[in-house]
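We modelled the chain as a single entity of 138 amino acids. Its sequence is:
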Amino acid sequence: MSAINAWIKSVAISALTLSLIGQVSANNSAQVRSLESGTSAPQTALGTHRYALEIERASNITIQSQELFPTTGASHFQLKAVLLDAHSNMVATSRTIKGGNMELNYPAQPGAYTLVVNGHLRSAKREGADQYVLEASL
């Protein structure tokens, strides 16, 4: 009987651990990350990610996504993005490029902006094939 109790306890602890990991992952996707010129840290394409941008002088900004590990054929995910100003007004939307990647261009005035990237998988999840980076020119 004690072997069954130990097994049940082990399963319960594993379930609790997986639940906590899922909650942390969900909370991380709600984080606002800073986006600067250059290449961003990798993100999974599934869900919504928010990036804060600070534009110091009037300039044309360009933001493109790229698969972290490109595959042959179309991307395994689809990304779309919107750019919000400091008052949460949508000022620009992305266009689709290279399969499921996106590109956003906007003649920005100085100020704070938020880029909201939303992604979903278009095919079965493949290890590493569902991650992207952003290339930003601010």
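As a brief sanity check on the tokenised model: The radius of gyration is 19 Å. Confidence is low (pLDDT under 50) at residues 16-29.
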